[in-house]
Write a structure and sequence with these properties.
By secondary structure, this protein is α+β, with helices and mostly antiparallel strands. Helices cover 24% and strands 33% of the residues. The protein has three helices and seven strands; from the N terminus they run H-H-E-E-H-E-E-E-E-E. A hairpin with a 5-residue loop joins strand 6 and strand 7. The longest helix has 13 residues. The protein is globular, with a radius of gyration of 13 Å. The chain starts with 12 loop residues before the first helix and ends with a strand.
Length: 119
């Protein structure tokens, strides 16, 4: 379980939890927010597949002390059954972050597709 003990019981919480956990260096906690075969569109020209590979990306960021903003503007989430399309406006206002999430059997949400930034 993540060091902060927080659970993403709403799709909109996932982006903020990823930012908070990266800022705290909790890479294991970030990994809990992705399904095992999730896809992270980073780097943009070579997407990363699988939670272990995604975790390695975040570990490299944590090792470099990368910090994410936690106050991005949440756009309205679109739902279809147990899927959600969530997005935020990037902190600099020059792009958006988009994620597809799936509701888990326990009611929490996890990312299945993550595009960190589009311009």
């Amino acid at each position: 379980m993540a060091a902060d003990g927080k659970r993403a019981t709403e799709a909109e919480q996932v982006t903020r939890l990823v930012a908070e956990r990266l800022n705290a260096g909790d890479v294991e906690g970030i990994a809990e927010l992705y399904e095992p075969d999730a896809v992270l569109a980073y780097p943009p020209d070579n997407p990363t597949t699988g939670v272990e590979a995604i975790k390695a990306i975040y570990q490299a960021m944590a090792d470099q002390n990368v910090q994410f903003g936690t106050d991005e503007h949440q756009l309205p989430t679109v739902y279809f059954e147990d899927l959600a399309l969530a997005s935020t406006v990037s902190a600099d206002g020059k792009g958006t972050r988009v994620q597809v999430l799936r509701r888990q059997p326990d009611g929490t949400w996890k990312r299945i597709i993550d595009r960190p930034e589009t311009k």
